[in-house]
Specification:
about 260 residues, single chain, mainly alpha, about 70% helix, 9 helices, binds zinc ion
């Protein structure tokens, strides 16, 4: 591990995290290509460069807009800091190489998907398609020896991955009619191509447990009328991130027991 490269991952993670906030705000509103400048969502004042420095601007401005003093959503620094943390973890776990860069991009896409799903209870098809396109990279790499992948899964393991978690989720969605949406099923299909069948199954397993725990907590806090109001994608995304970062050793330990 090289501290200079690690710091570069952190800085780029922070800068990309700032761009992710733009994506989270603009994609559901279909205004992605309109008006290149960033502005306050409350008073629409154009933001100056020093109001756009990731994390630091939020702290420097005390979490309020400089013009209208409206509270800035805590989501902005959380997304920026969260993306930075994910990029650092990808570097620490897998070192510098094409795989950790691809992982960073995937983590950022999952952050955007999770935030949009929390906002509008929907996963844009374009996001799922982008994840699927990114997933072609590990699949193609698996044909080659010395490919930089953390697992020795053969190429067909990635194709099986497309169905490994998505088909069971689809069946559960049919059986329960609620909680799991079509977007969640498509997301796990796209993630399966990137992860391969072992890691995507573990990720879905973690995600469903996490989603269940979160739903139970919401039920306890807010009562029955919040039923089926919790989007599953953030839990599936977090579960898959954990499985991608630390899944291989966990799976090897499970395999060694049999
Ligand atoms: Zn404002």
């Amino acid at each position: 591990m090289n501290i200079v490269i690690g710091v570069l991952y952190a800085i780029y993670g922070l800068l990309v995290g700032s761009f992710l906030n733009v994506c989270i705000y603009r994609i559901p509103r279909h205004i992605f290509w309109r008006n290149a400048h960033s502005y306050c969502p409350n008073c629409h004042t154009e933001l100056k460069w020093y109001e756009l420095v990731p994390l630091f601007s939020y702290l420097f401005l005390g979490g309020r807009c400089r013009t209208c003093h409206e509270r800035i959503s805590l989501r902005y620094p959380l997304v920026e800091g969260g993306n930075m943390l994910l990029w650092i973890l990808a570097y620490i776990t897998f070192g510098f190489g094409w795989y950790s860069v691809a992982l960073c991009l995937l983590f950022s896409l999952l952050l955007v998907v999770s935030a949009i799903d929390l906002d509008i209870m929907e996963i844009p098809n374009g996001m799922v398609l982008t994840i699927a396109v990114l997933g072609v990279a590990p699949f193609v790499a698996s044909f080659f020896a010395d490919n930089g992948l953390p697992s020795t899964l053969p190429w067909w393991g990635y194709l099986v991955g497309v169905a490994a978690a998505s088909v069971p989720l689809f069946l559960i969605a049919l059986a329960t009619r609620g909680g799991i949406g079509g977007g969640d099923v498509k997301l796990m299909a796209a993630l399966g191509l990137f992860c391969g069948w072992r890691v995507v199954l573990l990720g879905a397993f973690f995600g469903v447990i996490l989603g269940g725990v979160m739903a139970a907590i919401l039920l306890l806090l807010f009562g029955k009328n919040r039923r089926a109001m919790m989007p599953l994608a953030p839990a599936l995304a977090l579960g898959t991130v954990v499985a991608l970062l630390w899944g291989e050793p966990i799976l090897d330990a499970i395999a060694a027991m049999f």
